[in-house]
Amino acid sequence: MSNTASTTLKEHLTTEMKVSMRAKDKQRLVVIRSLLAAIKQVEIDSQITLDETATLAIFDKAMKQRRDSYQQFLDAERPDLADQEAYEMTVIQDFMPEALMEDEINVLIDSAMTDSGATTMQDMGKVMGLLKPKMQGRADMAVVSKLIKARLG
Question: What would the pLDDT profile of 46-79 be if each residue is shown by its tens digit?
């Protein structure tokens, strides 16, 4: 992610929107505007200003939707539409923090399980509750969930 610590994700998106407009990069501009619209919608609906974690959650959701659509388009033999989804995923990824490596994910899971005292599947929620803020936008939470289940199961 190329933004500095003092720049919020939303500010970074707005800046990139202006850059895309000047460059007449309509394809990128559409993706950025959709992310800004999703943020604004949540802020209006909940009447709050989103923090970075909540903004990353929106990016995660957008990424998951694109991944699902990408797979559906591939299954339907529509490579043209799949390519568009793949492009949109790369644009969204530009605004997300660097992904965690597998060993980093495992260390965080082990730490969360120790901190929560998790030993059974009933403790899954505690572990996920500890991990989500640390991993939001940096790891696929479905994969993390499977890894936790394998350890608790």
Answer: 999 998 888 988 998 999 999 999 999 999 999 9
Choosing among 1.10.1510.10, 3.40.50.2000, 3.40.640.10, 3.40.50.720, the CATH entry for 9-94 is 1.10.1510.10
- The residue behind tokens 């490596």 is 101
The string of DSSP codes covering 100-114 is PPHHHHHHHHHHHHH
**What's the pLDDT at 6?**
53
> What is the rounded distance in angstroms from the CA atom of residue 60 to the CA atom of residue 54?
10
Nearest to 65 by CA among 109, 105, 111, 34: 34
Q: pTM here?
A: 0.76
